Amino acid sequence: xxxxxxxTALPFLLAGLMLVPCARAxxxxxxxxxxxLDLGVLDQSTWGAGGRVGVELLPLVxxxxxLNVFPxxxxxxxxxxxxxxxxxxxxxxxTYGLFAKLRPGFVRFAGDFIQPGTACxxxxxxxxxxxxxxxNLALDFGTVVEIYPTSRAILRVDLxxxxxxxxxxxxxxxxxxxxxxxxxxxxxxx
Length: 190
Description:
By secondary structure, the protein is mostly beta strands. Helices cover 9% and strands 56% of the residues. It has one domain: Porin (Beta Barrel), CATH 2.40.160. It contains one helix and eight strands.
């Protein structure tokens, strides 16, 4: 499962890096957002905040990185940190932009919980094979809509699915679940 994720995401990242020497005067976007993550398999829905930086390599290609923190210590997973980095592809008009995004990364949980989809015998302490790994692979893909009220200001809405591959602390296989994610934010272009 991990090799399939890497073989899918790696070509996009490498293509973006190979375009750097060909790039025109690069524009950099820096922004902040609030984000909602619905972890349906854990029956948990949470709000967080984060920051984002992007470098426009070509008119249609931007490489970006994002870090979100979900500070609520609720549900089974505890606090969550999410890091994503990848490409944003699409076009801009003078006042708006429409893009697709593909960003691999990670989701880190602060709490211990049983790996989704695992049947585990109720014993104390819980066997490590039953517990989900705290850091798990993630893949975020979806749509980005940007509005440009001025030549430097950006208002941004992200809609997408964030897949999380839940591993275990034992040798059990990873299990993938899709999660709805919404982000609303703003930023500046330099």
